[in-house]
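Re: the request from the purification team.
They wanted to know what the chain is likely to look like in 3D before they choose a buffer screen. I agreed to run a prediction and write the result into the notebook, where they can find it.
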Amino acid sequence: MSKVNSFNKKELEKVKDQRRKEKLKKKDERKSQSGAKSFDDMIAWVDENGRITNTPPDPDKKRIEVDIDSIQISTQRKTDEPDPVYQGRVEYVNDEKGYGFIKDKASIEKYFFHFSQAPAGLTSGNSVQFELEKGPKGFNAIKIELIK
């Protein structure tokens, strides 16, 4: 029995060696097909238009000098212009809770309003003009006036 087992071990080792050799052969084939890439092949340059290329820039081309002081990296300051007045129609009014919604004619957005910002007797369907104010959940309509 022991001789049979030793024979199987030898066969298994032969198979393992053969697999290792095949694996190395495949690895060498992949290396030879891909070709050895040099460091110069991996370098990328940026041309005068800001595009990435594989050719170095032409030293004879004219370079544009940029005045560093002319570059502005900021946002424009908010001017103190009066808030624009919007026009819309009252879509919904809840008299019990004291609020409603106005639908803007230009953008079809709906804005919340509280009765403290609206004239008395405001009902659904009334045409109004209003201003907007940033609230905790979005824009709110303020300074609401009826349009006749």
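For the purification team: Strands lie at 45-46, 52-53, 86-94, 99-104, 110-114, 127-135, 138-146.
Please add any questions underneath this entry.
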